[in-house]
Amino acid sequence: MKNPPALELVDVSKSFGKSLIIKGVSLSIPRGERHAIIGPNGAGKSTLFNLISGRFPVSGGRISLNGEEITGLPPFKINRRSLSRSFQVTNIFHRLSVYDNICCAVLWSRGYRYSFWHPLERLRDVRELAESIIEQIGLSRKRDVVAGALTYAEQRALELGITIAGGAEVILLDEPTAGMNRSETDEAVELIMRVTKGKTLLMVEHDMGVVFGMADRISVLVYGKILATGTPEEIRGNKEVQEAYLGEEALDATA
Amino acid sequence: MMNNTDAMSLTLGESKVRSRRWLVWVAAIAVPLLLPLVFRSGYALSMMCQMGIAVIFALSYNMLLGQSGLLSFGHAVYYGLGGYASIHALNAIGAGKLDFPVTLLPLIGGVTGLFFGIVFGYASTKRAGTVFAMISLGIGELMAAGSTVLPGFGGEAGISANRVTGKGLFGITYGPPVQVYYLIALWLVVSAILMYALTQTPLGRMANAVRDNPERAQFVGYNPQRVRFITLVLSAFFAGVAGGLTAINYEIVTQEYLTAHTSVTPLLMTFIGGAGYFFGPVLGAILVTFLQVVLGAYTKAWPLYMGVVFISTVLFAPQGLAGIVMQHRQVWSAGLMRRLVPAYAKVFVPACALLLGTICLVESTYHLTTEAQAGTQMSLFRIPLDVATPAPWIGAAALIAIGLYFFRRSCAAAALSWEGITAELQRRKSP
């Protein structure tokens, strides 16, 4: 294949004990696409993210990133292959400053690995990159504040900053606007669009306004299966989706 | 415009911080070098030697506890094995089998520590938390037990050596204790600088990250296990250096060096000093060694007092001495210290009464149970007491009761004025 998809799932399944949570999901996301996964609670959206990012091992199927198989790799190896993710529940380094949080997220991608001979202070590339990310996520004034002391919205911004800081080509965002009010959501969407420009984006999102506004394509996940994949218009017009999940009103609201 | 001035004040602040940091380091180097000019007695010199070694050991311990969140109960393994390797090397130098300067002997201890760090660390750093603590305890016990049966540990007597050996350089023979002191001071300064520098490297920062959130560290490309492993190996190196210095200082290494007791000592020092700050273990090591040496000379009950200090720290000042210092530094630089002084003075008096009563109770009990054959007469702070009469007991109980009552009241008052000051600081920060 000359131009492999950025992310490809082939018949991926996952069971916890006897219960099958993901029942054979196949998905192909071309490079540069913004793809949203929607579906009712308990459909397995977060689980799917955990499988792709290596947090949980798959029970069956294959996952490949830019044509290279990543099934069964630990999260840090998948991350090194240029896939990065955010978490639904804020997952940051609480006792480190905003700057240090971003710094940690930058180090591996700049090739410093486990170095104990480079003084951080002198790593200009790390510093400049970290500062520019902090500026992008709008936390410049909070640069030296301990992450645990930030407000919720600020922590969400930091979460996004950590996710993008390593320069990954494929970005997975798990409910980036969860718990935000309207104006915060608008700001977050604008921020996400800005920082993920030119990248492949896969996101789980509950806010239909956000989903239909941002996504190039949408997949509907119901009970561990993909019901439909298509452009926002196709999904909106899909009878099956309407019956299974969205309801007429929700779709009308996004029209 | 607003942004420009902000940026300027930020850089100004940074350069100020940096120059202050330099001052701290100059002082940290100068003080150990100048101390022997002030404290000349052999007693003081021997105590300062112990302190220097303890500081290295505690700092190396805090690479695990404070910086990586690894609670180890087996750090004595690296310290003890470093000590044993050094004492054997010292004997080999003495027998003419090894040509190695004594000055660099701690390096042998360090490399030994590093080697066993690689061997044991591989197994123990797979997990953090309780699993790590238990494995470190197991390895510690294993080595302590092994040292009694394996050759090379010298059985119960341990291994002794003579440090005045080999070719002395520039007349430095390590015969006079002051030369040993300067050897320890030199290694202390070098080790402390290196350990501080380590905290400011990618590995050092990622150790903090892994401590805070090992899962997230994986999603920024790092293997937490590898971060812990390398940190432990480096920390074992410095523990080995401390062990090597001990071998030179005492010219003997025994099984005691490998026991759980030796493992717990840097834990106490680090906790009391404050694991959250680089200089915390330094304070802790100095204080704990001081208490050990000084109290140990006066009373058999010194471990009990040490325990009380430890528990009080854990309960009332979980950030340790360093935390207390840093909190008050803020107040000091805001010029608000004056407001705290009266409240603290009011705490001080009943605290003294409470302390005196407790000491009287503890010492009387110890005298009664451990020195009964010497009669019931004892003296406390040069005051003769007879533990067979009720007087010391009643006195102690009264001091404790009255002291405690006023202590608690004055503490509440002090807490109140502390809160007032914190609120004031908050107000100033966000105008």
Distance separating the two termini of chain B: 19 Å
Name the beta content range of chain A: 15-25%
How would a textbook summarize the main sheet of chain B? Answer: 2 strands, antiparallel
Please state the CA-atom Rg of chain A, rounded to the nearest Å: 19 Å
Low confidence ranges of chain A = none
List the helices and strands and how they pair.
The complex is a heterodimer of chains A (255) and B (431).
Chain A: E1 7-16, E2 19-29, E3 34-38, H1 45-52, E4 60-65, E5 68-69, H2 75-80, E6 83-85, H3 98-107, H4 124-136, H5 152-165, E7 170-174, H6 182-195, E8 200-204, H7 208-214, E9 217-222, E10 225-230, H8 232-237, H9 239-254
Helix pairs in contact in A: 3-4, 3-5, 4-5, 5-6
Chain B: H1 2-38, H2 42-68, H3 76-94, H4 105-124, H5 129-149, E1 159-160, H6 177-199, H7 202-212, H8 214-218, H9 224-250, E2 252-253, H10 260-273, H11 280-298, H12 302-316, H13 320-333, H14 337-370, E3 377-380, E4 383-386, H15 391-429
How would you characterize this protein structure?
- The complex is a heterodimer of chains A (255) and B (431).
- Chain A has helices at 45-52, 75-80, 98-107, 124-136, 152-165, 182-195, 208-214, 232-237, 239-254; strands spanning 7-16, 19-29, 34-38, 60-65, 68-69, 83-85, 170-174, 200-204, 217-222, 225-230.
- Chain A is of the alpha/beta class and 255 residues long.
- Chain A has a domain at 1-72 and 206-255: 3-Layer(aba) Sandwich (Rossmann fold), CATH 3.40.50.300.
- In chain A, strands 6-7-8-3-9-10 form a 6-stranded mixed β-sheet, sandwiched between helices. A 4-stranded antiparallel β-sheet of chain A has the order 2-1-4-5, with helices on one face.
- In chain A, α5 (152-165) packs parallel to α6 (182-195).
- Chain B has 431 residues and is mainly α.
- Chain B has 2 domains: 39-310, ABC transporter involved in vitamin B12 uptake, BtuC (Orthogonal Bundle); 334-429, no CATH class.
- Chain B is 75% helix and 3% strand.
- Chain B has helices spanning 2-38, 42-68, 76-94, 105-124, 129-149, 177-199, 202-212, 214-218, 224-250, 260-273, 280-298, 302-316, 320-333, 337-370, 391-429; strands at 159-160, 252-253, 377-380, 383-386.
- Chain B has a two-stranded antiparallel ribbon. In chain B, strands 3-4 form a two-stranded antiparallel sheet.
- In chain B, a hairpin with a 2-residue loop joins β3 and β4.
- The relative contact order of chain B is 0.11.
- Residues 1-13 of chain B have low confidence and may be disordered.
- Chains A and B meet through α2 and α3 of A and α7, α8 and α9 of B.
